Amino acid sequence: MPVVIAVVNQKGGVGKTTVSACLADYLSQRGHSVVIVDSDPQESSVDWGALRAKTGRSEHALVQYKKSPIRVVGLCQPKSFVDDVLALQTDYVIIDGASNLKGITRHTIGLCSIAIIPVTPSSYDLWAMDKILDETKGVRKLVVVNRAIRHSMDTDLIQAELARLNEPNLVLMNAMLYQSVNYSRSIIYGETPILFRNGSARKDIEIFCKEAFKVMESIEGAHYG
Ligand SMILES: Nc1ncnc2c1ncn2[C@@H]1O[C@H](COP(=O)(O)OP(=O)(O)OP(=O)(O)O)[C@@H](O)[C@H]1O
Ligand SMILES: [Mg+2]
């Protein structure tokens, strides 16, 4: 059975698709088979996967880079969702969550080893977390701040907002994904900022993925990542 990681938040535009792609790219680069399940009818991950399949890295002017295989499937039919995910022959399934919490998200939560919740560093995002916490009771959750502004992050405030939510299964990650133009630059190649060898976003993603898999190992005693 694959290890299932859910990237969820009912708030739109916080980075669910971005984080899903980055996790998948990181794992795939390390030789693991990965399937991204796009549970969002918008199908951003499906579009990204289609671009990835047809755009060779050699077309990129900046680096020579071997493209790692990532399958992306669109599954947004609640009826068959659980069976379809469990039938996937792969080491890892990353579920790119939809903003709508009904149906699929509940199934997603039932399947995953861990839920990763991206939030932007805004109180509006943090105040809106009650709903996703309601939906993810009993599941270990990692909150990652995405689109953080380098050198100007007030982590104490974020920590205080999260403490107010009083959710025992929730951990704020030390790693943050900072605002970077390399995200939008890499999407057009069906890539992630891991593509840019000297980019700081690549380093951010590596630190984030290492921390996420370390937490998973500490929960399940298995070796991940
Ligand atoms: N760290 C970042 N730096 C710069 N741009 C980012 C970063 N993270 C995400 N973005 C951009 O923000 C936008 C929203 O990100 P994304 O699509 O991943 O969010 P989402 O939660 O999946 O949205 P939706 O709820 O619509 O599915 C995208 O254009 C993406 O490229
Ligand atoms: Mg999305």
Textual characterization of the structure:
The protein is α/β, with parallel strands linked by helices and about 220 residues long. It has one domain (about 5-220): Rossmann fold, CATH 3.40.50.300. Helix content is about 40%, strand content about 20%. It has nine helices and seven strands, in the order βαβαβαβαβααβαβαα. The chain has helices spanning about 15-30, 45-55, 80-85, 105-110, 125, 130-135, 155-165, 180-185, 200-220; strands at about 5, 35-40, 70-75, 90-95, 115-120, 140-150, 170-180. Strands 3-2-4-1-5-6-7 form a seven-stranded parallel beta sheet, with helices on both faces. β2 (about 35-40), α2 (about 45-55) and β3 (about 70-75) form a beta-alpha-beta unit. The relative contact order is 0.19. The structure holds adenosine-5'-triphosphate (ATP) and magnesium ion (MG). Magnesium ion binds next to α1.
Short synopsis of the structure:
Helices cover 40% and strands 19% of the residues.
